[in-house]
Write a structure and sequence with these properties.
Rieske_2Fe-2S_sf; 2 iron, 2 sulfur cluster binding; binds FE2/S2 (inorganic) cluster; Rieske Iron-sulfur Protein; about 40% strand; Ferredoxin subunits of nitrite reductase and ring-hydroxylating dioxygenase; globular; 3-stranded antiparallel sheet; about 0% helix
């Protein structure tokens, strides 16, 4: 049975459709509002965040699905070059140093990336 509303899970995409390492953006309901969110993949792990920089609330990316830095080791805000830890969303460099991205709960089930509602 395909998960849907009411069972606490919603399918976003197949894990294989996200580059490794890489990221993909979605629109999803977060706290009752439709928001831009993104999911970063690292091997068999995924990390989800709302696409809003704690600096000024702008989307982090300027190009579609481009959320990682040159080395693919941190999340990059392309506006003022803040860097965030992939695992925690905590800003480690830039104007919002010490602040964090808002988490967006995701997990992998049967090769699918699922939003936890
Ligand atoms: S908007 Fe992200 S660092 Fe300024």
């Amino acid at each position: 049975m395909r998960p849907g509303r009411g069972d606490g899970l919603k399918t976003l995409c197949a894990l294989e459709s996200i580059p490794d390492p890489g990221a993909r953006e979605f629109r999803a309901m977060v706290d009752g509002e439709k928001r831009r969110v993104f999911v970063v993949r690292r091997g068999g792990q995924v990390f989800g965040y709302v696409n809003s920089c704690p600096h000024v609330g702008a989307p982090l990316n300027l190009e579609d699905n481009k959320f990682l830095d040159l080395f693919q080791t941190s999340i990059l805000c392309a506006n003022h070059f803040a860097l965030f830890e992939i695992e925690s969303g905590r800003c480690t460099r830039g104007p919002c140093n010490g602040q964090s991205l808002q988490p967006f709960a995701v997990e992998i089930r049967d090769g699918q990336v699922m939003q936890l509602e």
